[in-house]
Design a protein that fits this description.
The protein is α/β, with parallel strands linked by helices. Strands 8-9-10-5-11-12 form a six-stranded mixed β-sheet. Bound molecules: adenosine-5'-triphosphate. Adenosine-5'-triphosphate binds next to strand 3, strand 4 and helix 1. It comes from Mesorhizobium marinum. Keywords: ATP-binding, Nucleotide-binding, Translocase, Transport. Pfam families: ABC_tran. This is ABC transporter ATP-binding protein. One of its GO terms (molecular function) is ATP binding.
Length: 241
């Protein structure tokens, strides 16, 4: 997964990781009556395996639009999204759904866990949908629950978990199929500062341990500072902070 290319030069060879996801000149507009609202305009962005990037921008700037476009939930109106070297803009809906299922994990502000299933079953679900045998899915779900330090909550339903525990289950579910990229929209936005910090630490450890690439929209500047780099949206473009 973590492919790299050698850069010639003097001194020790430097290996540069290849981007796992790239947004190239992405355009995104919404039409509201007579008005055309431009949200992304020539947006370029990329992530390499193992890096965690904060997306910090005011409300309405287009963070969710960027995440949904990068995550193949919305099609760009121009430009393209390259995932694992594959241009996704013109693929069929079925192909995009398959890529989303296998290669992209989403975490939202609210956990969106299935209320009638246990924590373990919620984490098994995407793996079963992908076609993994039940026993294998259960083993991976147990490992992830242990990793997130909520192994003892495996058989609790979401309503029987605290907010921080629910988000840790949601994070475990998002990475259950070992995606290339994790996209998170305010994953700690609904938690008190102490719990947010704790959940963030668990998320960061998972990203570093698994080598996936993560783009995390947050209004929390303290958490943003703990990521590898920070970007914002300005005039429809992704710019470094
Ligand atoms: N389906 C849609 N149709 C029309 N306008 C939309 C649509 N979705 C989003 N918008 C508008 O596009 C802009 C960007 O929305 P987006 O949700 O991406 O912002 P955001 O930065 O994620 O905001 P927040 O931090 O409040 O979640 C907003 O002005 C929003 O009203």
């Amino acid at each position: 997964m973590a492919g790299g290319e050698a850069r010639p030069g003097r001194g020790p060879e430097v290996r540069v990781k290849a981007a796992v996801i790239e947004l190239k000149s992405v355009e995104r507009h919404y039409v509201q009556g007579q008005r055309k609202l431009t949200i992304l305009s020539g947006a370029d962005f990329s992530l390499v395996p193992g890096e965690m990037v904060a997306l910090v921008a005011p409300s309405g700037a287009g963070k969710s639009t960027l995440l949904h476009t990068a995550g193949l939930l919305e099609r760009p109106d121009g430009g393209d999204v390259i995932l694992g070297g594959r241009a996704c803009g013109r693929l069929s809906d079925d192909e995009r759904t398959a890529i989303r299922r296998n290669d992209i994990g989403f975490v939202y502000q609210f956990h969106h866990l299935l209320p009638e299933f246990s924590a373990l079953e919620n984490i098994m679900m995407p793996q079963i949908i992908k076609g993994l045998p039940q026993a294998e899915a259960a083993k991976r779900a147990e490992q992830l629950l242990d990793y997130m330090q909520i192994g003892k909550r495996a058989h609790h339903r979401p309503a029987e978990l605290s907010g921080g525990e629910q988000q840790r289950v949601a994070i475990a579910r998002a990475v259950a199929n070992a995606p290339l990229v994790l996209l998170a929209d305010e994953p700690t936005g609904n938690l008190d500062p102490h719990t947010a910090s704790y959940v963030f630490d668990a998320l960061a450890a998972l990203v570093k341990q698994s080598g996936l690439a993560a783009l995390i929209a947050t209004h929390n500047h303290e958490l943003a500072r703990r990521m590898d780099r920070r970007v914002t949206l300005s005039e429809g473009k992704v710019v470094s902070l």
